[in-house]
Amino acid sequence: MLVYLLFVFLISSQYAAGQFGDFKQDFGYVTVREGAHMFYWLFYTTADVENYTDRPLVVWLQGGPGGSSTGIGNFEILGPLDLSLQERNYTWVKNFNVLFIDNPVGTGFSYVDNNSYLTTTNDEIALDFVNLMRGFYEKNTEFEGVPLYIYGQSYGGKMAVDMGIRMHEAEEAGTIKSNLRGIAMGNAWIHPVDATLTWGPLLLAAGLVDQEGYEEIQAHAREAERLFNEGLYFQSTAQWASTQGAVFRRTTNVDFYNILTKMPSQPDTRSAYEIAREMMIHDNSHMADTKQEVVNLYQLMNNEVKQALNIPDHVTWGSLSNAVFNTLRTDFMKPVTDGIEKLLNETDIIVTKYNGNLDLICDTPGQILWVDRLKWDGAEGYKNAPRNPIWEDNKLQGYYKSYGNFRFFWINVAGHSVPRDNPAGSRAFLRDMTSFG
Ligand SMILES: *[C@@H]1O[C@H](CO)[C@@H](O)[C@H](O)[C@H]1NC(C)=O
Ligand SMILES: *[C@@H]1O[C@H](CO)[C@@H](O)[C@H](O)[C@H]1NC(C)=O
Ligand SMILES: *[C@@H]1O[C@H](CO)[C@@H](O)[C@H](O)[C@H]1NC(C)=O
Ligand SMILES: *[C@@H]1O[C@H](CO)[C@@H](O)[C@H](O)[C@H]1NC(C)=O
User: Fold this and answer.
1) How confident is residue 268, by pLDDT bands cut at 50, 70 and 90?
2) Structural domain of residue 240, as residue ranges?
3) Which one of 238, 266, 290 terminates a domain?
4) Average pLDDT for residues 122-129, to the nearest whole number?
5) Do 45 and 123 fall into the same domain?
6) Is the Cβ–Cβ distance between 377 and 403 less than 8 Å?
């Protein structure tokens, strides 16, 4: 009997202790649809508070589509441990409960029973997200009512817009007990045609191409725009990729995620589409470093992490990311600016856009174009609002402009991934939105 009890105790304590690293955490799967299983990984805040629910819940979304938040976002950008498993001094966990979600389904540790269950539109992604959050609140009821913020980088920023709309609808209908207060789009893929058309001018102004290079890049970009305008979205995505190819050739491989650096040239027999897809999924600067890191991250996720988090054997972290990207290829070039207008017109959700100024892929000039076209009650007010400096640690970290529920943060000395590239500057938009940071 005693032996039996001891055995039961060992099993259950082992189960309870199932976690990776020393930080208090929760994780699990939610079946968001038939055949579609989404994984989340929560880190409770380490802030000195009586109850962790005194701090907001911040969702972090990686881009791609197909980039894993639990892997890339967590270990490479803002989680409690970095890729060498050392504590990260600026981790967002210091101020917030951070929820990493592997979405769309098929990304990271999320999986589908059949690839026909992968998502094909941003709205499907948003509906899956609402169901993920329903499952999350069911298990973690203490988070009901806690202020919720959705932060998405790159393609994650595009996803955050429709998630905001669908979450708000569900809250109004009383079918979820969340308290969504804001969404943030970090160097986001909001209006892909604007982004693609502004690479050339930015590179020319920065001295990274000459007039001839500029003209070749623009010819490619205008063709992507033409295909888009004709409703040939699938083809427009291929043309976007070939525009990237022209940029690589003409700049001798500028780093798309930070124009101050370059990607190493290497013989590459893959198509422009395959190269561009890999870049979007890995969401990181320096292709060579990325390759190195991805190998390590891939091994870390598929060995130590997989074991610690009791991931089913049949799931391989990252194995479906290309399929996730491919099924969204028709949606890839579509903007979500109408969704942003809808949020500003119809809800009281704060909408924050922040952008690292050294990024090329989701460059700041491309963001300014769609921001200036937004139609909402505050459009005129925003245009006339002052642009203020951001001072942190006695350094000018950037600028911000805000009106009503819309904010724009220009962050200096940062490429694509602002939380990592400029943690001090990041505090400005975190504090503005959440009052912590
Ligand atoms: C955090 O660590 C980085 C290098 O790992 C260092 O450059 C930076 O000064 C540290 N910041 C703080 C606030 O300790
Ligand atoms: C996956 O779904 C497709 C389309 O519904 C179906 O034709 C196929 O048989 C399914 N494959 C498996 C292995 O279930
Ligand atoms: C923390 O707050 C939540 C929500 O208000 C509550 O349900 C929970 O019991 C509290 N926990 C502690 C340890 O006080
Ligand atoms: C938002 O409101 C403005 C008027 O202030 C209107 O012109 C625009 O079409 C609206 N956009 C959406 C998506 O509802």
Assistant:
1) confident
2) 192-290
3) 290
4) 98
5) yes
6) no
Average pLDDT for 19-31: 97
Q: Are residues 271 and 368 in the same domain?
A: no
In this prediction, residue 16 carries a pLDDT of 44
The verdict on whether 154 is a catalytic residue reads yes
**What is the band of 295 on the pLDDT scale with cuts at 50, 70, 90?**
low
Maximum pairwise Cα distance, the chain: 83
Whether 199 and 183 share a structural domain = no
pLDDT at 27 over 70: yes
Cβ count near 158 (within 10 Å): 28
Q: Which ligand is nearest to the CA of 380?
A: 4
In whole angstroms, give the CA distance from residue 437 to residue 427.
Answer: 5
Q: Is residue 316 part of a domain?
A: no
Q: Are residues 9 and 70 in the same domain?
A: yes
Q: What is the distance in A from the centroid of ligand 1 to the CA of 89?
A: 6
According to DSSP, the β-strands at 111-112 and 97-102 are unpaired
Of the residues 68, 110, 154, 402, only one is catalytic, namely 154
Q: For residue range 199-254, list pLDDT tens digits in order.
A: 999 999 999 999 999 999 999 999 999 999 999 999 999 999 999 999 999 999 99
Among 290, 323, 357, residue at a domain's last position: 290
CATH code, 165: 3.40.50.1820
Q: What is the pTM of this model?
A: 0.94
- Local structure of residue 131 (DSSP, 8 states): H
Residue 154: closest CA among 77, 245, 265, 231? 77
Ligand index nearest the alpha carbon of residue 35: 2
For the chain, how many structural domains are there in total?
2
Does residue 199 fall inside a structural domain? yes
